């Protein structure tokens, strides 16, 4: 699937970045472009190197090899305080004895900015995060979400070219985290600067980003829009890591007579599926990947799909999740919008059903689908 996001010019370029801590290689020849005025998220499990990338852009860590440039400036040769970059951490690090105004003004005062300019920039920053009316309060008089907004105001008041955010929402409860996601997106659009957001939360990455960079073991698995990463994962790791997914082993029989389709054997049946633009050879082992929301359940008497048994039903409000066991013993997850008025919807535990999926909405990947390593892939 082609990206629907408009092309943006690279602002920051990382080339050949490697970093080792002790005997552990954290980053391995990493290339990455961060575009101007975009919200990009570095997503991956703990230890994948995403925070190390952020700290190198900020200047808190130095690469063992490679370069980091912002337009024509070699950032890797500048100390942290001389980079047009600011960072918001998970811990807000606000000064408890200062009010909001003084917390936000602190960095400007240290740089000897004129008093009138400090007042104007602090006022503007606090208005951006909707806290100007609380400027005389101390941090302990604020909620967690308000403290986070103060930390953001303190970062943006210095007018950086790039704002780095290291899992800034992870300490917030669910509702407040959702609210702050929307506020960060709004703020990024208003400021028009590049936001680089680090998280291990797939939902955050998909809902907030212009582009998502999926990382694993010091390298990049895939770069794309949220839809590209979710709907067209390029590797098995990305498919498994980003969202829930069902995985079935299959084998290619041959290219189908219809262009762009292949015949495969799956759970004892021969099916004709879309090749999704990939070339396959007869006998090749592949994985058929199915999102739970794309699964469809029908009565046991139906001729489509595969026989299965309902072993669990979990009500989720808008959706109902059904855990199914195939005759092979493998389990699948189906997630459907809940409709209590649909007589065909209320399958009982232990009931036999047939399970299929929306035609051509499957994802097919070879067993050894390679990771993407290019900077702008």
Task: Tell me what you see in this structure.
Helix 2 packs across helix 3 (115-128) and helix 3 crosses helix 4 (144-156). The radius of gyration is 25 Å and the shape is globular. With 377 residues, the protein is α+β, with helices and mostly antiparallel strands. It is built from eight helices and 20 strands. The chain has three domains: 10-240, Rossmann fold (3-Layer(aba) Sandwich); 245-291 and 361-369, OB fold (Dihydrolipoamide Acetyltransferase, E2P), CATH 2.40.50; 292-357, Nucleic acid-binding proteins (OB fold (Dihydrolipoamide Acetyltransferase, E2P)), CATH 2.40.50.140. Helices cover 22% and strands 35% of the residues. The longest helix has 18 residues, at 174-191.
Structure annotation, total helices: 8
Tell me the helix content. 10-25%
N-C termini distance: 13 Å
Instruction: Give the uncertain stretches in residue-range form.
Output: 1-5, 372-377
- State the order of secondary-structure elements, H for helix, E for strand: EEEHEEEHHHEHEHEEHHEEEEEEEEEE
Number-wise, the strands total 20
Number of domains: 3
**How are strands sequenced across the largest beta sheet?**
6-7-8-3-9-10
Question: So what's the overall shape?
Answer: globular
Examine the secondary-structure arrangement and name the CATH architecture of the largest domain.
3-Layer(aba) Sandwich
Classification by helices and strands: alpha+beta
Q: Do you know the CATH topology of the largest domain?
A: Rossmann fold
| Rg, alpha carbons | 25 Å
In CATH terms, the superfamily of the largest domain is P-loop containing nucleotide triphosphate hydrolases
Mean pLDDT: 90
Main beta-sheet annotation: 6 strands, mixed
CATH class of the largest domain: Alpha Beta
Question: What fraction of the residues are assigned to beta strands by DSSP?
Answer: 35-45%
């Amino acid at each position: 699937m082609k990206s629907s996001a408009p092309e943006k010019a690279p602002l920051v370029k990382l080339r050949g970045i490697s970093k080792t801590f002790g005997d552990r290689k954290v980053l391995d020849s990493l290339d990455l472009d961060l575009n101007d005025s975009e919200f990009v998220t570095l997503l991956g499990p703990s230890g994948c190197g995403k925070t190390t990338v952020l700290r190198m852009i900020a200047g808190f860590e130095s690469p063992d090899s490679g370069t980091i440039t912002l337009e024509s400036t070699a950032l890797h040769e500048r100390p942290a305080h001389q980079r047009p970059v600011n960072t918001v951490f998970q811990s807000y690090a606000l000064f408890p004895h200062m009010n909001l105004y003084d917390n936000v003004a602190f960095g400007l005062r240290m740089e000897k900015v004129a008093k009138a300019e400090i007042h104007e920039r602090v006022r503007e920053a606090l208005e951006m995060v909707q806290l100007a009316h609380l400027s005389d309060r101390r941090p302990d008089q604020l909620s967690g979400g308000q403290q986070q907004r103060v930390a953001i105001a303190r970062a943006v008041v210095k007018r950086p070219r790039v704002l780095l955010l290291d899992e800034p929402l992870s300490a917030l409860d669910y509702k407040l985290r959702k609210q702050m996601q929307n506020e960060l997106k709004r703020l990024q659009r208003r400021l028009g600067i590049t936001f680089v957001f680090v998280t291990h939360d797939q939902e955050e990455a998909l809902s907030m980003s212009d582009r998502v960079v999926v990382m694993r073991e010091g390298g990049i698995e895939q770069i794309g829009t949220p839809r590209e990463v979710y709907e067209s994962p390029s590797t098995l790791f990305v498919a498994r890591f980003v969202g829930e997914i069902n995985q079935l082993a299959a084998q290619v029989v041959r290219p189908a007579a219809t262009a762009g389709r292949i015949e495969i054997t799956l759970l004892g049946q021969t099916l004709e599926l879309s090749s999704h633009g990939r070339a396959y050879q007869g006998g090749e082992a592949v994985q058929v990947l199915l999102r739970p929301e794309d699964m469809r359940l029908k009565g046991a008497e139906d001729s489509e799909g595969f026989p299965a048994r309902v072993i669990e039903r979990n009500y989720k409000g808008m959706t109902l999740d059904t855990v199914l066991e195939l005759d092979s013993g493998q389990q699948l997850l189906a997630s459907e919008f809940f409709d209590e008025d649909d007589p065909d919807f209320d399958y009982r535990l232990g009931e036999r059903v047939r399970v299929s999926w929306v035609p051509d909405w499957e994802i097919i990947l070879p067993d050894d689908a390679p990771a993407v390593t290019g900077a702008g892939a």
